[in-house]
């Protein structure tokens, strides 16, 4: 160690802390501030550019409040999701999304396109949406700290979440916040795959929640991979619905497709390493609309000098894990409460099974969930903080962080970030491990992940800017262990969680899977909620 | 990945240092941003979108562009119109109309499955 002085610690107080400044976090912050809470939003990057929405853009599950249209919208993906959705939650999310999109136009003055004389609210352009969310929450009085990754949650003597600790990486300064309640809106986990905007999504919130005692759910729905031109980042799988795929020699790759044929692409990439693609099914008008709809789709092609409509180009599949999977922190109340008092979860950090079941929540459903669950969680956190009263900031706090913060044992046999990233590269990214799943390959992969987790638990605690980086590595390893533990427990194929040796749906496994634990993991079936609502709807 | 910071265009406003979600830039001599951690760049193009001077260029590759690549050549990306093209397309900058106002994509029907021949 060099003799540099210890960085000073910044001490802050807030009624509500929101961790993460993407769509869910900004809606949570806005709602809590409007409810009268003093809100501090902490982003590990920059609120306004962090995460896949800001750099991508998204469709939105915006459906007019017409009972027939709403019913159709709710029914559309139920079978795909393995019937694990909850109709009551779907209805709430459709209501809240409708309201929020209208507020975006009226209050944030988002420039929606006008089609047939009416604002067209079925999508949001990422940079514009998140730029407006940032200025909107600032106007509402929310304080924002950018480049300030949280490193752990703080709890009071009763185990109630009462603050966070973190590091301001552009000021080389640690910070601590005493808070009445905390909302985790840290996104899903894409394992640093460089899928568009996803490298900030390392599953941090799930680790912190689990360390404070929260549970996860749906972690077997975590094998999402997106199509991108090889060696590039722009994942926009929907547009590949207009594509034809080919072997390296230019002959058609039969059965390949962006939906319902992506595993064929994965298999060919495993076998030969090359899949070519040409977006040859888009007519001139469609081509024009693709460019106005999503200009960033063409950044890659324009800059590499490729015409994707007339030329074949190589593609790859990038891991999107639980960003487009549906697993996350388990929700136990309408206000997006978790099993831990004072802790709320929203957006991709939370399970999206309630609205998506076990099928990829990518695009419209995820964005609707983000803005709705953010609103619910922000309101819940503000109410929780208000009910604590004046004693909220006089509680005695202790840290909950394990791996990388409080080493277990003697420190011998410790592992660091590099070892963790290496295991993740070998055991989570490969298509034959996480995508085309089989127990014979999942079990040894999980054993390897367990071993590196033990190493991380034993390893030394770094200081300053190295701590958040190590914590992110630990979060990814923990995430992968919950994923594979749940995947092994589901001995059937439901939603996106498919097992090669169990290709069929097993009616006896019609349940969700809760999972948790850190050093020793557990998994438990949970009954599917909201069935009674659907049965009533079907009967009427 | 981020490849070019144009010292002649940069107005040393520090916006890229602030907005980069993966903290790739440091403030260098004379206030010019330097690419300090290129390996952390996630190729999201957000710095380009927010740069008010079109002084940044992100190559679309998730690895560094090779030595001699035109994607590292400021003159090439300027003359070909690629520099500043993302900001232009999303309609950011004085006198431009927000691209969001135009952003209506095609109807996405059932995805095509590649036939056998």
Automatic annotation (TrEMBL), chain A:
Q: Which ranges carry the Fumarate reductase/succinate dehydrogenase flavoprotein-like C-terminal domain? A: 467-513
Outline the extent of the FAD-dependent oxidoreductase 2 FAD-binding domain: 15-221
Q: Which domain of life is it from?
A: Bacteria
Q: Does the keyword Ion transport apply?
A: no
In the record, what terms sit under GO molecular function?
Answer: oxidoreductase activity
**Keywords, comma-separated and alphabetical:** Flavoprotein, Oxidoreductase
Q: What is this protein called?
A: Pyridine nucleotide-disulfide oxidoreductase
Query: Which species does this protein come from?
Result: Spirilliplanes yamanashiensis
Automatic annotation (TrEMBL), chain B:
Q: Does the keyword Nucleotide-binding apply?
A: no
* Region described as Disordered: spans on this chain: 93-117
Q: Which SUPFAM superfamilies match?
A: 4Fe-4S ferredoxins
Q: Which Pfam families match?
A: Fer4_10
User: At the top level of its lineage, which domain of life is listed?
Assistant: Bacteria
Keywords, A to Z, come to:
4Fe-4S, Iron, Iron-sulfur, Metal-binding
Q: Where is the 4Fe-4S ferredoxin-type domain?
A: 1-30, 31-61
Q: Name one GO molecular function term.
A: 4 iron, 4 sulfur cluster binding
PANTHER family the record matches:
ADENYLYLSULFATE REDUCTASE, BETA SUBUNIT (PTHR43687), BLR5484 PROTEIN (PTHR43687:SF4)
What this protein is called in its record is Ferredoxin
């Amino acid at each position: 160690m060099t003799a540099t002085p210890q960085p000073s610690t910044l001490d802050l107080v807030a009624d509500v802390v929101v961790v993460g400044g993407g769509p869910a976090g900004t809606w949570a912050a806005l709602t809590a501030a409007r409810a009268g809470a003093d809100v501090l939003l902490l982003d590990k990057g920059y609120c306004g550019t962090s995460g896949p929405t800001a750099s991508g853009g998204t469709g939105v599950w915006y459906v007019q409040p017409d009972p027939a249209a709403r019913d159709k919208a709710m029914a559309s993906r139920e079978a795909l999701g393995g019937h694990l959705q909850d109709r009551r939650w779907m209805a709430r999310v459709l209501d809240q999304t409708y309201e929020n999109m209208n507020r975006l136009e009226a209050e944030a003055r988002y420039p929606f396109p006008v089609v047939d004389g009416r604002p067209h609210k079925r999508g949001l352009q990422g940079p514009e949406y998140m730029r407006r969310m940032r200025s909107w929450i600032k106007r509402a009085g929310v304080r924002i700290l950018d480049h300030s990754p949280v490193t752990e949650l703080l709890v009071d003597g009763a185990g109630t979440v009462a603050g966070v600790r973190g590091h301001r990486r552009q000021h080389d300064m640690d910070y601590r916040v005493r808070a009445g309640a905390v909302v985790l809106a840290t996104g899903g986990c894409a394992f640093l795959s460089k899928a568009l905007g996803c490298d900030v999504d390392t599953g941090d919130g799930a680790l912190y929640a689990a360390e404070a005692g929260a549970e996860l759910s749906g972690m077997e729905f975590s094998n999402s991979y997106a199509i991108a031109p090889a060696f590039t980042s722009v994942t926009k799988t929907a547009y590949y619905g207009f594509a034809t795929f080919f072997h390296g020699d230019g002959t058609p790759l039969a059965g390949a497709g962006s939906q319902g044929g992506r595993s064929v692409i994965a298999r060919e990439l495993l076998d030969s390493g090359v899949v070519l693609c040409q977006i040859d099914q888009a007519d001139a008008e469609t081509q024009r609309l693709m460019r106005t709809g999503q200009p960033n789709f063409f950044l890659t092609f324009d800059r590499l000098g490729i015409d994707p409509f007339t030329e074949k180009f190589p593609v790859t599949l990038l891991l999107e894990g639980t960003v487009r999977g549906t697993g996350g922190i388990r929700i136990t109340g309408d206000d997006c409460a978790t099993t831990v008092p004072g802790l709320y979860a929203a957006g991709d950090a939370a399970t999206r099974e309630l609205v998506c079941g076990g099928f990829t929540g990518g695009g419209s459903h995820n964005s609707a969930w983000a803005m709705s669950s953010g609103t619910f969680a922000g309101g819940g956190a503000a109410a929780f903080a208000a009910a604590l009263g004046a004693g909220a900031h006089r509680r005695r706090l202790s840290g909950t962080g394990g791996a990388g913060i409080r080493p277990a044992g003697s420190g011998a046999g410790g592992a660091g970030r590099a070892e963790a990233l290496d295991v993740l590269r070998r055991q989570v990214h490969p298509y034959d491990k996480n995508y085309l799943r089989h127990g014979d390959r999942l079990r040894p992969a999980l054993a390897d992940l367990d071993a590196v987790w033990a190493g991380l638990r034993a390893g030394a605690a770094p200081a300053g800017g190295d701590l958040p980086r190590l914590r992110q590595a630990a979060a990814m390893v923990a995430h992968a262990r919950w994923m594979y533990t749940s995947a092994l427990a589901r001995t059937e194929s439901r939603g996106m969680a498919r097992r090669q040796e169990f290709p069929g749906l097993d009616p006896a496994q019609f349940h969700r899977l809760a999972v948790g634990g850190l050093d020793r993991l557990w998994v438990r079936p949970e009954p599917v909620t909201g069935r009674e609502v659907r049965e009533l709807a079907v009967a009427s | 990945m981020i490849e070019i910071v144009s010292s002649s265009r940069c107005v040393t406003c520090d916006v890229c240092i602030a907005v980069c979600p993966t903290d790739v830039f440091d403030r260098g001599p004379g206030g010019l941003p330097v690419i300090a951690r290129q390996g952390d760049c996630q190729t999201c193009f957000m710095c380009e979108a927010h740069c008010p001077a079109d002084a940044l260029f992100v190559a679309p590759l998730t690895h560094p562009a090779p030595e001699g690549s035109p994607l590292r050549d400021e003159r090439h990306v300027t003359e070909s119109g690629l520099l500043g093209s993302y900001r232009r397309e999303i309609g950011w900058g004085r006198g431009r109309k927000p691209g969001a106002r135009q952003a209506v994509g095609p109807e996405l029907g059932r995805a095509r499955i590649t036939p056998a021949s």
